[in-house]
Each structure stands twice: as structure tokens, then as C-alpha cells.
Write a structure and sequence with these properties.
35% helix; three-stranded parallel beta sheet; 203 residues; two-stranded antiparallel ribbon; alpha/beta; globular
Length: 203
């Protein structure tokens, strides 16, 4: 969210496919899929490990996910919270099933986020690799129109989140700010920084 879509005032995510319905509907579908895979009620499903850094907020989110998996699907998830240096080292290994990650695009464009997950990308922590995904992201760079470019990026997003489930969006960074109507010239950077260098207060 917060990334421009095809038209003025439109949001890239809101103009794309809806990946989630209601919690109840998604839970029912997850139970059906789990049973179809041979794990009715989570019986026999192996314990999974969720790797996260120990920053406040991230651990609480991981623990909430663990609780929901246990109560909703009967799946046990171990939360492994590490200090930053140990976390970065552990990400490079294979002793985890899920890992916390985040992204801040340097520009307000969907490409800045989706390029993260191309094959062998330096920030592609999970090692996701899909030829169709790579092609859609690459082709978006040479698309003749903005509409065509965003369509290709939506195709990539569908592969990443829906078809392959390589990324499971949980939360989005946001900032709340109260600003006087008379304040002008404040610049919001795509990475979340706020610049007051050119700001002025009117009457």
C-alpha cells in the first residue's frame, strides 16, 4: 500500500487482486487444504520454526501467528527470536521454515519491492526462484506504457503472494502525524523520512 497505481490517486495494491477474504473463510479453506494434504486438524504436521529478530513488536507478531496456527489449525510453530547480528547470520542458514523480513522501497514504485525477490537477488532471503516471475519483473522495465508496466508487476505479485505463497504479508509500516492546515512545503520521502527544510507556516 502507499504505492501509486495506474490512475491519479489510485493505489497499486488496491487495484490488484484481493489475496485475502475474511478470517473465517480463509481459516476454513486452510483446514480443507491441510486435510487434503493428509494432516486433518494438524495431526502429524511437523513443528515449524519462525525466525525473527528480537525487536519489540516483531516478537509479539510472531507469537500471535503461532497462537493462531495452534488454535486454528493445530499446527505448532516455534518462535526463534535472536539479536540482530545472530538473526542476520541465521537467515543465511537453513534452520528455519519462515523468516521475518521487511522492505522499504527507495522510490514509491511497486518495482522497488518486487525486484527484491528475483532469482539470486541480494535481499531474497527465502531463495525464491521462478522464471515467470523474473520475466514479468524484467519486462516491466521495458514496457511501453505505464498501464502495461503495472500489469506485469501485478502478474509478478500474483505469482509471489498467491500462487507460490513465497511471501506472506502480515503488516505494513505506517506513520501517524498531526499537521496544521497552514503548514506548507513538508516533503514525505518514500522511505518514511519527513523533511522540513522547505517548510513554512502560513496564517
Amino acid at each position: 500500500y502507499g504505492v501509486p497505481g495506474p490512475g491519479r490517486g489510485e493505489d497499486f495494491r488496491r487495484t490488484g487482486k484481493a489475496y485475502f477474504s475474511s478470517y473465517e473463510q480463509d481459516l476454513a479453506r486452510a483446514k480443507d487444504l491441510l486435510a487434503a494434504a493428509g494432516y486433518p486438524g494438524g495431526a502429524g504436521f511437523p513443528t515449524i520454526t519462525f525466525l525473527t529478530n528480537d525487536t519489540s513488536g516483531h516478537v509479539e507478531i510472531a507469537e500471535a501467528v503461532a497462537q493462531m496456527l495452534q488454535e486454528g489449525l493445530g499446527i505448532t510453530m516455534e518462535v526463534k527470536a535472536l539479536g540482530w547480528d545472530d538473526f542476520e547470520a541465521a537467515k543465511a542458514g537453513e534452520d528455519w521454515d519462515l523468516v521475518r523480513s521487511g522492505a522499504l522501497g527507495q522510490v514509491r514504485d511497486a518495482y522497488a519491492f518486487l525486484d527484491t525477490f528475483v532469482t539470486d537477488g541480494p535481499r531474497n532471503d527465502g531463495g525464491f526462484s521462478n522464471e515467470d516471475y523474473d520475466k514479468a519483473v524484467s519486462d516491466s522495465m521495458t514496457a511501453e506504457t505505464q498501464a502495461e508496466r503495472l500489469q506485469l508487476l501485478h502478474q509478478a505479485e500474483d505469482l509471489l503472494v498467491d500462487e507460490q505463497a513465497a511471501v506472506l504479508p502480515i503488516t505494513y509500516y505506517s506513520q501517524d502525524r498531526l499537521t496544521q492546515d497552514t503548514l506548507r512545503g513538508v516533503v514525505d520521502h518514500a522511505a518514511g523520512y519527513v523533511y522540513f527544510r522547505w517548510a513554512s507556516a502560513g496564517a
